[in-house]
């Protein structure tokens, strides 16, 4: 992460993203069950997953990729 220019404050943001992802997956697992096939179906079309993906993508584009 530091090779992309992230600082200590950015690590806190990444931790927030991870915490949000964990809470989303726990919710989906509770709703859909513990079987992987059911969980994957629960991910598809989930608005929270899409929103988190967009947020992470927007955040990540602010950092360079080494070698590119």
What does this structure look like?
The chain is mainly α. The protein has a domain at 27-61. It is built from three helices and no strands. It has helices at residues 8-32, 36-43, 47-60. α1 (8-32) packs antiparallel against α3. It is elongated, with a radius of gyration of 15 Å. The relative contact order is 0.15.
What is the gist of this entry?
The chain is mainly α. Helices cover 69% and strands 0% of the residues.
Estimated radius of gyration: 15 Å
Bulk shape: elongated
Oligomer: single chain
Number of strands: 0
The string of secondary-structure elements, in order, is HHH
Percent helix, as a range, is: 55-70%
Largest sheet: none
Percentage beta strand: under 5%
Query: Regions with pLDDT < 50 over 5+ consecutive residues?
Result: none
Note the total helix count.
Answer: 3
| CA(first)-CA(last) distance | 15 Å
Average pLDDT score: 89
Descriptors for this entry?
0% strand, 3 helices, single chain, 68 residues, mainly alpha
């Amino acid at each position: 992460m530091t090779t992309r220019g992230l600082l200590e404050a950015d690590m806190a943001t990444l931790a927030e993203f991870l915490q949000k992802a964990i809470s989303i997956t726990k919710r989906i697992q509770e709703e859909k069950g513990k079987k992987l096939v059911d969980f994957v179906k629960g991910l598809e079309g989930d608005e929270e997953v899409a929103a988190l993906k967009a947020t992470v993508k927007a955040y990540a584009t602010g950092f360079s990729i080494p070698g590119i």
